[in-house]
């Protein structure tokens, strides 16, 4: 049974043993560079099969890193866009609330003005009716005086 050697830590031992490492779950740019270096070293030793396999591994790893970076940036942009949309929605709701408050205040003012006008008309009508009654009574009193 062959001993598995971690290529990332010792590329020279990996070249000697020709045992490819297993791609780690968490990939970093330094890991991809060591895969590329291994591909170059195998090419220098004219082991083109191993060189090709490491170069393919390098390309896959590099592509995955770029995709993860792109997805991370995309997630940040989506989050930023969502925050902006929420802020716009909050501002719109605040404007709607202010508009409703202004409309309510204006309606209350109109109701108050109508109430004052109605009360003034009632008081004015009562005063005119009272004046008419007083004038009629004075007229009737004066007429009785003139008859006598």
Tally of contiguous helical segments = 3
Shape: rod-shaped
H/E series:
HHH
Residue-averaged pLDDT, rounded? Answer: 85
How many angstroms separate the termini?
150 Å
**Total count of strands:** 0
The biggest beta sheet is recorded as:
none
Strand content bin = under 5%
Low-confidence stretches: 1-8, 18-26
Structural class by sheet pairing and helices: mainly alpha
State the helicity in percent bands.
over 70%
Q: Radius of gyration from the CA trace?
A: 47 Å
Show the helix and strand layout:
Elements: H1 11-17, H2 29-44, H3 48-147
Helix pairs in contact: 1-2, 2-3
Any overview of this molecule?
This protein is mainly α. Helix content is 83%, strand content 0%. It contains three helices and no strands. α1 packs across α2 and α2 packs antiparallel against α3 (48-147). The longest helix is centred in the middle third of the chain and has 100 residues, at 48-147. The protein is rod-shaped, with a radius of gyration of 47 Å.
């Amino acid at each position: 049974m062959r001993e598995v050697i971690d290529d990332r830590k010792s590329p020279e031992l990996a070249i000697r043993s020709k045992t490819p490492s297993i791609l780690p779950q968490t990939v970093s740019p330094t890991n991809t560079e060591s895969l590329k270096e291994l591909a170059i070293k195998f090419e220098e030793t004219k082991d083109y099969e191993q060189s090709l396999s490491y170069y393919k591994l390098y390309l896959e790893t590099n592509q995955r890193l770029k995709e993860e970076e792109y997805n991370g940036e995309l997630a940040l942009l989506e989050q930023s866009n969502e925050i902006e949309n929420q802020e716009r929605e909050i501002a719109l709701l605040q404007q709607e609330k202010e508009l409703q408050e202004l409309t309510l205040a204006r309606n209350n003012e109109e109701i108050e003005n109508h109430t004052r006008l109605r009360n003034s008309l009632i008081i004015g009508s009562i005063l005119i009716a009272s004046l008419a009654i007083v004038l009629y009574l004075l007229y009737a009193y004066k007429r009785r005086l003139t008859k006598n």
